[in-house]
Amino acid sequence: MIPTVYSAEVTAARESGKAIVALESTIITHGMPYPQNVEVARQVEGDIREAGAVPATIAVMDGTLYIGLEDDQLTALAQSKNVAKLSRADMAVCIATGGTGATTVAATMIAAQMAGIHVFATGGIGGVHKGAEDSFDISADLMELSQTAVTVVAAGAKAILDVAKTLEVLETQGVPVITYGQDAFPAFWSRGSTLKSPLRMDDPAQIARAHLTRAAMGLPGGQLIANPIPEEDEISSEVMLPVIATALGDADKAGILGKSVTPYLLQRIFELTEGRSLTANIALVRNNARLASKIALELQAQG
Ligand code: PSU
Ligand code: MN
């Protein structure tokens, strides 16, 4: 038995059959600085409510799995230091030992599936790191997408990753990568990229139908929906590429490895862009929350 607590709002939504959108907590604890992290978390939850769905931010606190956080819990989590970053490998250990941890994309998908939630909004997924041919650093997020039936809305993958290799692994793993409303696979802070998206859809109803079709065929796994950042919020790749190169060089010099790589790079890019990367990050997460809500409502209408 997994000690699980649903927020009041999520409990009511489950009873009345309202659409629910899952949100991860690593973006709060390891992806953005305090106090912007808690402000953004609240805004994103508000965006989902405004779109007619219910937000469920997921985290493990003192060995309990929370599906939806009350506002004081959200604030406490955003302020805590030394929170573990949980993926598939360490989530059960954290719960079993009474620990506290924030859920990555992989761990959030697992929790969402346990709670019967089919749609999840985030900023960017983990992927194949540059130099993975030597480090073998490939995020468990990619394998999770191939086995857990949750549709994940993200703004593509960051250029801190090897995006082409990330798309190759997703293809090998049988994950549908669907870009919303354009042909190019978006590059997180920038709308465009030189990479063509494997698939494209222009309508949330279609995305919901594809999710249900996959399930009906008995195929495990979810879908990755790549939602380009709104035009007015994007930062051009000419601005971002040198910044990313500097951040990667600094990570290398500092000897950052494993789980610490992504949080280190995000923090370094925040400093190097004087906060501009964060402003864009906030805009794209909110945009993803709105699209995820539409998909969740459609799933409910069709399902
Ligand atoms: N990419 C981002 N922002 C993030 C993350 C990734 O642009 O906050 C977080 C997510 O929680 C993601 C995790 O699941 O980092 C991937 O970490 P790793 O590369 O260690 O698997
Ligand atoms: Mn990794």
Secondary structure blueprint with pairings:
Layout: E1 4-6, H1 8-16, E2 20-23, H2 26-29, H3 36-50, E3 54-61, E4 64-67, H4 71-79, E5 84-86, H5 91-96, E6 101-103, H6 105-114, E7 119-121, H7 132-135, H8 140-147, E8 151-154, H9 163-172, E9 177-180, E10 199-201, H10 204-216, E11 223-226, H11 237-254, H12 261-272, H13 276-302
Helix pairs in contact: 3-4, 3-13, 6-8, 10-13, 11-12
The structure holds pseudouridine-5'-monophosphate and manganese (II) ion.
What this model shows, in words?
The model has no long low-confidence stretch (mean pLDDT 96). A hairpin with a 2-residue loop joins β3 and β4. This protein has one domain (4-238, 285-302): 3-Layer(aba) Sandwich (Indigoidine synthase fold), CATH 3.40.1790. The chain is of the alpha/beta class and 303 residues long. It has helices at 8-16, 26-29, 36-50, 71-79, 91-96, 105-114, 132-135, 140-147, 163-172, 204-216, 237-254, 261-272, 276-302, and strands at 4-6, 20-23, 54-61, 64-67, 84-86, 101-103, 119-121, 151-154, 177-180, 199-201, 223-226. Pseudouridine-5'-monophosphate is lined by residues 24, 26-27, 31, 87, 104-105, 123-126, 139-141, 158, 259, 262, 266.
